[in-house]
Amino acid sequence: MATDGTGTDHVHHHTPLEDAQGLLFGGAMAAFGIAMLTHMGFITGQIAGLAVLISYVSGWQFGPVFFVLNLPFYWFGYKRMGPAFVLKTFISVALLSGLSMVLPHFVQFGRIDPLVGAVFYGFISGSALLALFRHGASLGGVGIMGLYLQDRTGFKAGWTQMIFDACVFGLAFALLPWQPVVWSAVGALVLNLVIAFNHRKDRYIS
Fold first, then answer.
1. Any stretches that span the bilayer, and where are they (predicted)?
2. Number of Cβ atoms within 10 Å of the Cβ of 112
3. What residues contact 116, with CB distance under 8 A and at least 6 apart?
4. Where are the alpha helices (DSSP H) in 103-204?
5. Can you give the residue ranges of every domain in the chain?
6. For every one of its 206 residues, what pLDDT tens digit does the chain have, with 9 covering 90 and above?
7. Claim: this prediction has a pTM higher than 0.85
């Protein structure tokens, strides 16, 4: 949003090229965050966290699991956000899924202190989501369904996300050692704080 000096606001829309680089940046940074997360044996919230947990238990790769788990949520996104949002979100999810399978061939980690790793995971993934939000996309999942249910029933979207995350972390405590789950909660907290402090839709151009 820009002002011409007379108090009149002008909305400047992103060009297709700007949207493309924003989605590429968001998908790539999210994939890098997942590479770091899985190297440390941590999880996260939302559908990504469930996909990571399934990959740990089953041995399946994160990318295909994440891609498939997101498929039902595009319908909610279409109903709530429209076709442009769904298309950009589909591209972002596909980028994350594909890059998460490719990156391990090019990026390897040594020892990462768990606290430092959790904090930097939150920073990296938070920046990825901010880029996607700014360009009218997301990484799919429960947040979209939460907004849809809020419109239909009045049940707050935030509560839907919190209930889902509580289930994911509860399942993680049952399946994984407690230490990485606790550090994972730190990473999820940092990620959510990054979004809370920096995501202001009224400040963004579209």
1. 22-42, 48-73, 85-103, 115-133, 181-198
2. 15
3. none
4. 114-134, 142-153, 157-175, 178-198
5. 58-203
6. 444 444 445 556 778 788 788 899 999 999 999 999 999 999 998 899 999 999 999 999 999 999 999 998 888 888 877 898 889 899 999 999 999 999 988 988 989 999 999 999 999 988 998 888 888 888 888 878 877 777 788 887 667 878 888 899 999 999 999 999 999 999 988 888 888 777 665 555 44
7. no
